[in-house]
Amino acid sequence: MTPTHLPGRVAIPQQTRGTSLERFNTAPAADVQHTLLTCLHSLRWSHRVTAHRPYPTLDALLAASDEAAYDLTPGDLAEALAGETLPVLPEDTYSAAHMALDAANAAYEAKFGHVFIICLDDLPPAEALDHALAGIRSRLANDPEEERVVAAEELRHLARGRLSRLFRGTGP
User: Fold this and answer.
1) Within a domain: residue 7?
2) Quick check: is 121 in a domain?
3) CA end-to-end span of the chain, whole Å?
4) Nearest Cα to 80, choosing from 50, 121, 114?
5) Does residue 118 share a domain with residue 63?
6) Does residue 71 contact residue 42 with C-beta atoms inside 8 Å?
7) Does some domain include residue 112?
């Protein structure tokens, strides 16, 4: 299933389903970095995670991903945020919800200079819209430094979820 993206946003490419940790550990560095960039668009992060191979377990890979994400500089964070999209809403979400999210994101982008990101991985699809709208509205009250910290944490969660899905064979 191809995710639906809002107009004007860059989609993150589909990753190969069911990537094995052994293949990840032994693949050429350039291939691994390309795959990692589909999880988090940060060259520094992808280089660090690649450089620390091999990983004995998925948990070790996820821990390395977290550690590398914690070390993102403001420039790295800007690079990663530039590669993100608005949260994907369930297909049956009504168009007014898309308009509400677009309007809130326009205000967010005007204030912070990047698209709003939020990890919706652990939420039932029926709650995604409410959670995204509540999140964007509350985070609009943040100052830029507070929001940089929150956005970095959301990126870390997104990367962790994408890596987990990649290795569990369920795609991005």
Assistant:
1) no
2) yes
3) 10
4) 114
5) no
6) no
7) yes
Structural domain boundaries, residue 53: 21-79+160-168
Query: Which tokens belong to 38?
Result: 């589909």
Please report the pLDDT score of residue 62 as a whole number. Answer: 97
Give the burial string for 112-137 (b: 16+ CB within 10 Å, else e): bebbbbbbbeeeeeeebbebbbebbe
Give the total residue count for the chain.
Answer: 172
Tell me the pTM.
Answer: 0.80
Count of the separate structural domains present in the chain? 2
The pLDDT assigned to 10 comes to: 35
Q: Tell me how far apart the alpha carbons of residues 127 and 136 are, in angstroms, rounded to a whole number.
A: 14
Indicate if 75 and 90 belong to the same structural domain. Answer: no
Reduced 3-state DSSP string for 73-117: CHHHHHHHHHCCCCCCCCCCCCHHHHHHHHHHHHHHHHHHCCCCC
Q: Give the number of other CB atoms < 10 A from CB of residue 20.
A: 11
Domain contains 119: yes
Q: Give residue-wise pLDDT tens across range 4-35.
A: 333 333 333 333 445 689 999 999 999 999 99
